[in-house]
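Here is one chain, start to finish.
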Amino acid sequence: MRSCPEMAHTSAADVTYAVERTNRRTVGIYLERDGSVLVKAPQAISNERIEKVVQSKRNWVYRAQARWAALNPQPVPKEFVSGETVYFLGQPHRLDFRSDMQRSVERVGDVFALDRAKRGQAEALLKGFYRQEGLKRIPEMVAQHAKSMGVSPNQVRIQELGHRWGSCSEKGTLNFHWKALAVPVEALHYVVVHELAHLVHRDHSSKFWWLVEQELPGWQRHEQWLAEHGAQMTL
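Its structure:
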């Protein structure tokens, strides 16, 4: 979930992957939330060496992508019509296009009421609503956990992050995807704690996971939920 600098995409055998150069000492292979393969490698290691590592791990990649495909059927594109369902904080909400609204989007119980005259902008309006809610809710979560974890993030931003729930920059800025507002509150707390832990440990070492465990015991179930249901949390 860390920051995502410019990456080169290449392939070894029939495995296509992106390479992220970091300050780590070893090569790590990860399956991203969208099913793609990310290789995190030291700055000095050659592309040829990275390719050999990927080839040696291709059976693991095949199995991991097969599991991902089984758990993540392609979501049906939203039509943005009345009755369509989207998720907010883990709960299904029905879209309802109405006339004579004072605001473009309003959340009324488990309904998102949208201005019928702006139906063509429905997706953009909903994304804007999620961003605004993220700016209200996530900084409070960050402050809560940062205090108990003894860390001090530089800034909190809500933005488009592709297939990542969050990222932590080298300067201590925490970025969160607006889509994170679709997941259950407990899972959102895990995303926050995960990124805060990267202020102390830049990798996913045992020390990193120990810190996450101290702040959020049972974090594994939230990570599992995101792995199984995250792809469905979309507009």
